Amino acid sequence: MEQTIREVFISNYDELPVRLGKAVVIEDREIAVFRLTNGNVKAIENKCPHRGGGVLSEGMISGEHVFCPLHDWKINVNDGLVQAPDKGCVQTYKTRIEGNQVYVELPQ
Ligand code: FES
């Protein structure tokens, strides 16, 4: 069955700080949004899969990875995968920039 998606406005592009995360709550989802130095905007689930469930929007960004503020797990913001030697993943969300507006795609 095809999954329907919808787009939700999350922020103006120029209000997203470069290399810092921003937490956005949409209904029951908490999403960490990152504006990378290459200009791309990435959105991932705002909860580390490790036991403490660190808030990823408060983590340090380096290139295309975010470091969890609690125990420093390194998570790729493109595919949500935790980098070795640790294991796990977080949900990722597609983003779209239109003019100065940033949207995220959510499952229906
Ligand atoms: S809670 Fe994120 S590394 Fe432990």
From TrEMBL:
This is Nitrite reductase. InterPro entries: Rieske-like_NirD, Rieske_2Fe-2S, Rieske_2Fe-2S_sf. GO terms for biological process: nitrate assimilation. Residues 8-104 form the Rieske domain. It comes from Gracilibacillus boraciitolerans JCM 21714. The keyword Iron applies. The keyword ATP-binding does not apply. Pfam families: Rieske_2. CDD domains: Rieske_NirD_small_Bacillus. One of its GO terms (molecular function) is oxidoreductase activity, acting on paired donors, with incorporation or reduction of molecular oxygen. Keywords: 2Fe-2S, Iron, Iron-sulfur, Metal-binding, Nitrate assimilation, Oxidoreductase.
